[in-house]
Amino acid sequence: MSDHAILRFEKGHMQIDKLRVTCRKDGTVFDAEIVTHAPIDVWIASIRAVRCSTCGAAADDLVMGGSYNDAPPATAPVADRASWWKARGYVGFSSETIWRIMLDTKPLTNANVPQDPADFRRCRAIARADSRMEGTAR
User: Which of 11, 77, 90, 131 has the most CB atoms less than 10 A away?
Assistant: First the structure.
């Protein structure tokens, strides 16, 4: 399963990426889809088009970031925290490799090191779920 849907435009590709958003009006945290790798006017229009999934608040009442409030506690088993991350997180090949290692399952055959900042961010997020990696994922 891919993080991205690809759209075509005349000089290349645009992507639709998920962006974690929090509504200032009602506190809802949701994943919005925005266009990236696109001309700036398309990117800005895609951000302005985002609405709160609960109350319909416009982009002016939304902030980037936020976290779901159903995460297992730090004292929960690594497998529980890793599985929650897999269900909620942004998963790429590198971060899924870490997830599989955390759960002592077979690594992906096409595993690799992080290839870009977003890939590194996903790896850092899953590493934070494992207390055995404490201090290595800051």
Answer: 90
